Amino acid sequence: MNRILDYRTDFYSLGVTFYEILTGRFPFQATDALELVHRHMAKRPVPAHEVDPTVPTAFSDIVSKLMAKSAEERYLSASGLKADLERCLQMLEETGKIDDFEIGRQDISEKFRIVQGLYGREKEIKVLLGIYDQVSRGKTKIAMVSGYAGIGKTSLVKEIYKHVTTKKGHFISGKFDQLHRNVPYSALIQAFEELVRELLTERRGDLEHWKEKLLEVLGLNGRIIVDVISDVELIIGPQPPVVDLGPVESQNWFNLVFRNFIRIFCEKEHPMVIFLDDLQWVDAATLRLIDLLMTDEDMQYLLLIGAYRDNEVDFSHPLALALENLKGKGALITQLEVGPLGDQHVTRLIADTLSRDQESVKTLANLVVQKTTGNPFFVNQFLTTLYEEDLLTFETGARQWQWEMPKIKAQDITGNAVELLVKRLERLSPETQNLLRLAACIGNRFDLETLSLITEKSLAETFFGLLPASQEGIIIPFSGSEANDLLDHDGIEGGRRFKFLHDRLQQAAYALITEQERKKVHLKIGRLLFENAAGEAPEERLFDILNHLNPARDLITQPADRDALVQLNLSAGRKAKASAAYEMAFEYLEIGIDLLDPNSWRDQYELALELHNEATEVACLSGHFGQMELLVETVSQNAATAQDKVAVYQFRVLGYWAQNKLSKAIDAALDILQMLGMKFTTELTLAEIRRSVDQTQSAVGRKTTEELLELPQMKDPVNLAILRIIKDAVYCAYSTRFELFVQLLLAGINLILRHGNTSLAPFFYCFYGSVLCGVSGDIESGYKYGQLGVDLLKRLNVREIMGGTLFAFNVYIRHFKEHVKETVKPLAEGYQSGLETGDLSYAAYCALSHCVRMYMASANLVKVKQEMEIYADAIRSINQPLVVDVLQIFHQAISNMLNENEKPWVLIGEVYDERTQLPFHQEANNRFALHYFYFNKLILTCLFTQYDEAVESADMAEKYLDEVTGWRCLFFTSTIPSPVLVLTTLSRKTNGDITLRR
């Protein structure tokens, strides 16, 4: 059998033939093959009688029905078409012409086919179309569709597909799978793989346009996207590896790059709809990314639609928590609850399916609703069972469908959908059943190659074994071909990728295997996939392989096989970590640790250490701080050397930092530094601090700037780790323990002097320069080392610490030697660099300082206000509320200067209201915001001669001065050079004059 014909497809071909005969031309004309295919799929041809008025309208209508876009709108039967053609012939023979008549009256399908359409969902469709229209005008919206399995959620959402594509929008979809919960971003990857495949079919010129756009937005970060959506490389070409960042920066970086990638396709001309199905099985990494997308104020023209089974999502489910969190951030979520069909809807469906009037099917419809509770999927399965049991038959003589209610009731057919599905499956041949069982183990979607590999049969044998299931509608191809149009002249064409019609069908097939047998099947699948991938890149199918091997791991007894599985889980943990899917990474690494031999710390030391180091890191990043502590203790007890404990202690520092336990973070850093031979004094006087600075300056001063630039590269991994721990501890000590901050900074400088430069050296040189300026008052030396840090930054080209380095130099050093306006542009560069590398804290502080420096440099206030508006939105989008609060204070102060307010010295306006926000800052003891509130209040009260309030504001600004400097008030001039106030208070003289007092 070379070809299996679907009559509806042939009707379309027949319509094209008739059209050409009647009009002398094809229905569509195009020079480009893809454009021609698009027109046949999406456009309606001009009716034949409009092309040639001599063509009878009735015959033209027949041709149009044959060529209808939807298969359901075409003729249902050859007999129906034959009847209409005979009617035309009869009129022609009797009257010499063909008059108009209602075509299709005798078109009743003799083959049982349930009408593919939506019933009773008009309200929900209208809501979705309304949301999409808002998105088309530049909005970003999210809609959640909930309901029981089989209720029609997916069908409802896909009903708007034609509307979206007609308006040239993108509609992509992905589905989460209960057997693949450990694959990060699985549904999103499916959706964008679908989009990328569409792009790859475009003309060369259009594809080049997408290449340029992708490269422009992704820059050097293309590898991040290629690692999760490999086909992107076919558009933009091979991508260089990305730099190795710290764990927090890596997470930020991945999410921002992925967000920017998605934003590329959200255009005014082509709004984007992303449909994620079965969100009850969503992974945590996807939820974090959704949160980022939906709270990004720069995102436009995006509609995210999610569907989930509400009976499987309770209040504690990660999805429910994520949606509540989004609502708390102001996201407007449209919730559509899809309920069962009512009697009238089922009556219409049955009447349309059987080509009968509604009154004649009411009794049958009532029984169906009673059995299925109006669940559309169950309704379809129940009707199909009636047909298969010969309780619903087509009477050829009467040309109509018949049924006998007493017989149907006597059969007592169950309304349980799963039982019906199992019965349908059991009627298939043992060969087909076995194929479906194996396919169900692969997942909701599977490809013929993988199934063929598992069964060890040829593609053709596997295909023909599946064919009965395809004909029964249990599985359907999703490669664009019609369900039965799967073969070309040589073999398989469209049927290489399949999916189960519904999750319940997959579950029914999966249920045919016992628990123990499932493990054996998963083990076989995993081993075959692994063996097949050995000649390629195993990472490509790493998650697929482990989704089968891990559930069957208790069947793997050979030490070599268990060791191989440990290595696979280690690789998967790293791969998931690189994609910021930390929960999944932790699961893989935990499994790897559990699989280790009890004597692994003795016999497989490097592997055990590696696994525990990776697991400690992702435990920290995923918030499993309890497990992180246990892992640190395990390494601490089993590691052979102090150097081998460095990595886990570093993550302990970061873990405490993430929990805002800065004192514990510092103590953890000091513990590991002491193990490595570095001890720090917990308390120093100001004189001792200055002596330490002078001693270090004496050592550093022996080398010229050129000699420092030419220091060799630091190689020793322990020293590199020590320097990174010191850097992390410096962050924590900056605002809390000034004397320790200086000691740590000096220790880092001395380490660099002894062992060479590293990518962190620019950061240390710049902060060292700030200490010289602020503590020693040595402006010349401080500026020299700050400039050294910037020069070394350019030479090493290390973008990952560019934000912090540019911040330190331009905020704490540069203005002592150069005009403050020279710091404005570099701080904007620091913001951009921090954004690109995920160093969001320094990105935000650079943005704030950039705007404030423009203000202090006497830039045009209108321009400064515009900059502040732009950066406030940007900082808000990267979730840095502390910095946004301060920027809004400056923003409102400038607005007061520009506008005629009744009381311009009062910070009340569109972006800030001191009546509500000042108490909030006081309650939270936000000293950072409180200082800058009173600082701006002082400027305004001075400008508008409210001197009593100015005195109070000056005193309050000084009260919170320690928070904004972190330097015990030693060099506030280096934080923000103000022409009005630097450590001043105002006092009223008796004659009303104002005196500045330092």
Question: What's the short story on this structure?
Answer:
This protein is mainly α.
**How many DSSP helices?**
48
Distance between the termini: 97 Å
Q: Tell me the Rg in angstroms.
A: 35 Å
Major pleated sheet:
5 strands, parallel
CATH class type of the domain at 122-337: Alpha Beta
Strand content: 5-15%
As a percent range, the share of helical residues equals 55-70%
Spatial strand arrangement across the major sheet: 2-3-4-1-5
**Architecture of the domain at 122-337, according to CATH?**
3-Layer(aba) Sandwich
Overall shape: it is globular
Detailed description of the structure:
Helices cover 60% and strands 6% of the residues. With 998 residues, the protein is mainly alpha-helical. Among the domains are: 7-95, Transferase(Phosphotransferase), domain 1, CATH 1.10.510.10; 122-337, Rossmann fold (3-Layer(aba) Sandwich), CATH 3.40.50; 343-415; 683-797, no CATH class; 807-879; 881-998, no CATH class. The strands form four sheets. A five-stranded parallel sheet has the order 2-3-4-1-5, with helices on both faces. Strands 8-10-9 form a three-stranded antiparallel sheet. Strands 6-7 form a two-stranded antiparallel ribbon. The N and C termini lie far apart (97 Å). Residues 1-8, 480-495 and 965-998 have low confidence and may be disordered.
